[in-house]
Design goal:
Layout lengths: L1 H16 L7 E10 L9 E4 L5 E3 L5 E7 L1 E9 L2 E10 L4 E9 L41 E5 H6 L5 H4 L6 E5 L6 E5 L2 E4 L2 E2 L2 E2 L11 E8 L3 H4 L8 E7 L7 E9 L3 E11 L6 E12 L8 E15 L2 E14 L1 E2 L31 E15 L4 E26 L2 E29 L2 E21 L4 E7 L10 H11 L3 E22 L2 E14 L2 E5 L3 E5 L2 E17 L3 E12 L4 E3 L12 E3 L4 E14 L4 E20 L2 E22 L2 E16 L15 E10 L8 E10 L2 E2 L7 E2 L2 E11 L3 E8 L18 E9 L1
Parallel strand pairs: 1-7, 12-15, 21-23
Antiparallel strand pairs: 1-4, 2-3, 2-5, 5-6, 8-14, 9-10, 10-11, 12-13, 14-15, 16-17, 16-45, 17-18, 18-19, 19-20, 20-22, 22-23, 23-24, 24-25, 24-26, 25-27, 27-28, 27-29, 28-31, 29-30, 31-32, 32-35, 33-34, 35-36, 36-37, 37-38, 38-39, 39-40, 40-43, 41-42, 43-44, 44-45
């Protein structure tokens, strides 16, 4: 069946690529002025969800060509949308919008909080990266959520996990071994691994000081984003801050509980008079002691982004960032099966006591460097060449791995990496086109992709060493020190393990969105992926050096979608079929399950594991944009899972199913009043798996996740700029283990803030976890009790 689908898809592409016939164009022109009738130079005037637009000149005037049709024209200034108007373009004619007035006087524009001019500022879902093409939220047949920097600021987020609290159905926390961030979504867990659409897999937690927004694409997304770093539940794409045409800046300071001191700078400036060279710089310094008796962290970050426009057709961008956190590393707690307690809140482990000390911290670093060239080939076609290099790792890292021995005893084990380094390079070429086949409009992206990664590390052998055994209820535990750990290691370690591995993925893909009938759009997408695992090498003192041969796999990943808009630009119904995959390394097994006494296992080359999703729902953008949202139901089936049938022997017939629904609503019912509401329900099960897993629920996946935030800011009167915000987050109980015998309790967090926002400054205070609730992450680590944060920002 698939071969017929693929043949049809490739036929569509062949027809599309023959359709370079030029469309019929008209011109849009006008002038941008302020409320006191002064010109507004260098405002951006864009056709929404398209590559068409221009920047107003020094007199505030603009003109550009665009294919005939009906569009929404958006005026942006300093990165914020200030006006939107409807235009109708006729081929060969000029549509003169005359004067577009920004709701601020020219002498006050620097004193206006520009985001307040926007309608439903938290509901901005425009994205050119979610579908790798200019495609509106209502036109995209995939559900996705967007967290903007404005929402992060209002919620006074100081880390990535708190910034992501408003993603419906998702829970984001530090990684399983305190490496990176994990996102739990639609019954699966994955890592935050994309930066501006390219792979960046940091060994440290992500930082928000350089983020413009975060896009969370729901469901398997391998067709456009590949299989190397995607999750079946969805992907998280961090979009960094980019320079714009105005001089702006913000200096911000946070202080609060447990010695919090956080300092950030965001500076944007043109580098020449005609605004064709731009620069944006962001910097971070963060110090915090943690709520337990140990757990300090000292973090530093710096980012710079430049954009150059050598001519009207070409834009060149460079950006780089470095983030260097220094903190204790604690892995998830092991061996819960020996406890009589069945949930984490019943374990006799002091909530405010740390299992380690501030003397044992690990500095890590994560470096990204990228370049991009965007070239407008014609009025229909654009080329975008993007490259990202990521380097991440550490030297002398020490992980603590607490391990239960019985109800009253816990073993403090540690693991040491002499060094750990991962380097990756991602090169991507996309061609975007907008053209007609007869009366059918098409938007097409065709891309090729090269992703290469390598990892090298050295660690002590055996992997774990026992530091000591302590009584969980004891009032004091022996202190830990780096000197003692090094001594233990030298005395007890049996040498060093060294390993190296790497892979390269070559991909080609396309995605076409065609308006096959009025208000009915169809998306057809396909990816051809060639994965090549390089030969790996591992050395251990007991086995010596062992090399493993590389292997290759080729996979086709399709994607289909339908969107019908009964009310254009206001309401759409959508349905999709999405696919993702994970490459499986060769291992000992059987081609099919049989009698192990009669069939000898052999080294098997497996197919990629595969996830397929069917989803349907509706999207809305009602009341002139004051109510936006998505409601969807999904069903994901994972096949080709490796299933263990004996020690070290597998067969590839495992199956897992995950289904549920999500609600994502953002509203701005009155000027100054904003509401963010989300809910996710998930039901998942291992249908066919190892004997211990079959019929069980995946660990770390809550059934219910809900989020709520509402705020009101006075925009007029004597208290203009005063604002209040309150919110709540609920995460249902999760299983800690695959046996479904030990649980992490459900929890509810209540948060509140009050702030005073003026054109030149902003002050605010916030209390997180108002009820001082004791709760744990999915890996058994206690989380912050009631937390107080105060902030002051100066804007220029």
């Amino acid at each position: 069946m698939r071969i017929f689908l693929y043949t049809g898809i490739w036929f569509l592409v062949a027809v599309s690529n023959c359709a370079f016939a030029q469309g019929r164009f008209g011109k849009v022109m006008g002038e941008v002025r302020t409320s006191d009738n002064k010109s507004l130079p260098y405002a951006s005037v864009l056709i929404k969800n398209s590559p068409y637009g221009a920047m107003a000149n020094a007199d505030g005037k603009f003109s550009f060509e665009v294919p005939e049709g009906q569009y929404t024209l958006a005026v942006t200034y300093a990165g914020y949308t200030t006006n939107q108007i409807q235009v109708t373009v006729t081929a060969g004619e000029t549509f003169d919008v005359q004067v577009i007035t920004v709701d601020a006087a020219s002498n006050q524009l620097q004193e206006v909080i520009i985001e307040d001019i926007e309608t439903n500022k938290f509901g901005r879902r425009e994205s050119n990266s979610a579908a790798r093409m200019p495609l509106g939220h209502l036109e995209n047949p995939q559900a996705y959520s967007v967290i903007t920097k404005e929402l992060m600021q209002e919620q006074m987020a100081i880390d990535y996990n708190s910034a992501m609290l408003s993603v419906p159905g998702a829970v984001v926390m530090n990684g399983v071994n305190d490496s990176g961030n994990e996102v739990f979504l639609r019954g699966f867990n994955g890592v935050v691994s994309f930066r501006n659409g390219l792979v960046s897999n940091p060994r440290s937690q992500s930082e928000i000081f350089n983020l413009e927004k975060v896009e969370v694409l729901k469901g398997p997304s391998g067709t456009l984003f590949g299989g190397a770093m995607t999750s079946y539940g969805g992907i998280v794409n961090n979009l960094t801050k980019k320079p714009f045409e105005s001089y702006r800046g913000t200096v911000s300071y946070h202080t609060g509980s447990w010695g919090l001191n956080r300092f950030t700078v965001d500076l944007n400036t043109p580098l020449n008079n005609d605004r064709t060279a731009l620069l944006r710089v962001n910097a971070l310094g963060h110090m915090e002691n943690g709520f337990q008796d140990a757990g300090k962290q000292r973090n530093f970050g710096f980012a710079a982004s430049m954009a150059f426009k050598p001519n009207e057709r070409t834009t060149v961008r460079f950006d780089a960032d470095i983030y260097r956190p220094d903190k204790p590393l604690v892995a998830f707690i092991r061996n819960t099966e020996v406890l009589d307690a069945t949930t984490m809140d019943r374990v006799n482990l002091p909530y405010y006591r740390s299992l380690l000390s501030d003397d044992v911290t690990t500095p890590r670093q994560n470096i990204n460097a990228s370049a991009e060239i965007e070239y407008r080939i014609s009025d229909h076609w654009t080329s975008r060449t993007s490259y990202l290099h990521n380097s991440t790792g550490e030297s002398g890292s020490i992980f603590f791995v607490p391990t239960y021995l019985r109800d009253e005893q816990i073993e403090r084990r540690f693991r040491v990496f002499d060094n750990y380094q991962t380097n990756s390079d991602h090169l991507q070429q996309n061609f975007n086109g907008d053209f007609n086949i007869g009366n059918v409009n098409n938007r097409l992206v065709v891309g090729v992709d090269l992703f290469s990664t390598s990892t090298k590390y050295q660690e002590m052998f055996p992997v774990f060493q026992v530091y000591d055994t302590v009584a969980m209820h004891a009032s004091g535990w022996p202190p830990l020190s780096r000197v003692d750990i090094e001594r233990y290691r030298m005395e007890r370690a049996n040498g060093t393990t060294a390993a190296s591995s790497g892979s390269t993925t070559y991909s080609a893909y396309f995605s076409d969105v065609a308006e096959v009938l009025p208000r009915l759009k169809a998306m057809v997408s396909l990816r051809l992926d060639r994965y090549q695992q390089k030969s790996s090498y591992t050395y251990t003192p007991t086995n010596g050096g062992v090399s493993t041969e590389g292997f290759g796999q080729t996979f086709l990943s399709p994607k289909f979608g339908l969107v019908y808009e009964p009310i254009r630009d206001q309401l759409s119904f959508f349905a999709n079929y999405l696919n993702a995959f994970v490459n499986q390394s060769p291992s000992m097994g059987l081609a099919s399950e049989g009698d192990l006494d009669r069939i000898d296992p052999s080294l098997q080359t497996w197919k990629p594991e595969e996830a397929n999703q069917y989803e349907g729902g509706l999207k809305m953008n009602l009341f002139n944009g004051r109510l936006t949202g998505t409601v969807s139901y999904y069903n994901i089936r994972v096949s080709n899972r490796l299933r263990s049938i004996a020690d070290g022997i597998s067969v590839q017939d495992g199956t897992q199913v995950s289904k549920g629904f999500e609600v994502d609503i953002i509203a701005n019912p009155l000027a100054g009043w904003n509401i963010v509401v989300g809910y996710g329900y998930n039901d998942n099960e291992y249908i066919r798996d190892t004997e211990g897993n079959q019929g069980k629920r995946a660990q770390w996946t809550p059934v219910h996740v809900a989020n709520f935030w509402t705020s009101y800011k006075f925009l007029d009167g004597t208290v203009k700029g005063l604002g209040l915000g309150v919110g709540a987050n609920y995460v249902g109980e999760t299983y800690f283990d695959v046996d479904n015998t030990f649980g992490i309790p459900a929890y509810t967090l209540l948060n509140a803030t009050i702030f005073y926002d003026q054109p030149k400054y902003r002050v605010g205070v916030k209390v997180n976890n108002l009820t001082d609730n004791h709760y744990w992450d999915f890996f058994g680590k206690p989380q912050k009790p009631a937390e107080f944060i105060a902030n002051i920002s100066y804007k220029f």
